[in-house]
Amino acid sequence: MSEQKSRWVPDTLMLEERAEVALNAMINVADEDYEYIPFFMANFKAKPAYMMHGNWDYGSSHGRLVDSIVLAREMTGSDLGKQVEMRYRENLLSFFREDGLSYRRDTFKHQDLKDYHCTFEESASMIDQRAVLLGLTTWYLATGDERVKGYADRHCAALKEIARKERDSWYYPASEYTTHGWPSFDAVHTRLAVDPCAMWGRQVMPIIRYYEVTGNPDAFELAEKFVHNIIYRSGAFHQDGSFNGALEYRNGHFHTRMGTLASIARFGYVTRDASLIAWVKKSFDWARTKCTTFGWTPGDMHDQAYEHETCTLVDAINTSIWLAKSGYSEYWGVAEKFIRNHLTEAQIMDVSWIEEYDKKDKDIPEYKTFYKVAQRLRGTFAGYAAPNDFVYDGLAGRGHMMDVQTCCVASGVRGLYQGWNNILTWERERLSVNLLLNRTAKEMNINSYLPHQGKVELEIKEGLKELVVRIPEWVPYGAVRVIRQKADGTQKEETGRTLSWVKTYFINLKQAEAGERITLIFPMKERTTIEKAVDNEFVVKWRGDDVIGVSPEGTYYPLYSKRKIYEEVPMREVTYKEGVQSLE
Predict the structure, then answer these.
(1) What pLDDT, on the 0 to 100 scale, is given for residue 401?
(2) Which of 3, 177, 404, 433 could form a disulfide with 124 if both were Cys (CB 3.0 to 4.6 A apart)?
């Protein structure tokens, strides 16, 4: 365990605590009887609950888990499951071939292949390549291991080698690459349809991130050419920003579209390209009209419309943050609503309702386990949530498919990290408090009493030349009170009418001294909205940025039904890690 200290905080949302619980699921999803390969999905509705393997178990799951376990440890200092983490890392490297790409194993049954009139050939899924580079980059950032950098450099070179290059527009001609090349010359030659967002649009984020970390020129060139293809050649997005819902574009699959928007937003931020940021904003604003304001997202625009993935929500959070950091400060509020609500509400903290089995005699080796599934998956995130329920269990769409996907477990932690890492940000010599959540940092401690009270305390630990704090858009600027108590006990009170503001939503507190305690107080607002999810409507009750009730209530494992508001906010003692680094 890393060096820990403790302090008292309001008993409100702490993202690092959620990450520590999620670490339990990321470690225990491993199949210790099958090389520690993680299971991909879980079904809690079954009696007893079970987990199963799938074809996503390899590069996709391993890359995501390696990435998010490192992020969770940076947030929490926890050493839980280090041995399993090492096995994940070994496995991740073992999937690479001499060509620099990550390959899957055969997990399909003979009847499946027969039904689809096909044969299995080991291949490098272009979806997986995104995840493996994500994991390698975070691993390298955390350790500086040059061996890992070598794998990542070869990986970028391989992705560049196999990409089809047409002037400034690069793409892949198929969803997978085999040991002898692309599966079909005719498909390559005639440029038959393959989903651009799923195969190379989402790759842009880990690719440009790797460039930021290492300056790898192949990475930058790949990202630049893929971005151009998505915007100007792919047809995945219409001129008005809407998603192309045609079958060959996966019915406008939201996870891959949101992931592509987050990727291009980051690329636009890195390159300071305002036109790219504006393009992302236009499409993201359209996409949000299909989501709820508290973070439920569709699966696609047709048959999977009801299947919200935590992965998609995390992509939306990332998009909001990059837009906010690029100057559209209103998106900090979007990100905070998503984090406070559907990201953390759709994380399983109570598993008492799931039927457990404590033996392995029912297990099918290398395929399915019934062993202690509930305990092992405490802290996981929903794979296919409804706006009011942990899983959509209705008659529309495909119905109850599964409860958990390992991709969503890891993505949920990445979402927690993105929020936690951006509660405070520096811009030149200005420190911004962007999200009103509890946080312990070297510059200050933040104590948030929301949603119980409109109160945020800042305990300043280092002298600051300029400090700004975002005030939610529903608070009248004149209603904000700022009480400043210096280390010598002197106190001063001001209001939002007398203080200056920046970027519309940020109150400017100017210079702050070490030892100063600054308390911001504002009235809480309760309101009701009507939220539409596909063709279902929900009445949603809010207190500030927190949903405190949804009607109708869910029936499977209801969400938002247990949230309580207290007049006196309870306090609790928490531990925290010192000396964190940014692995964004």
Answers:
(1) 87
(2) 177
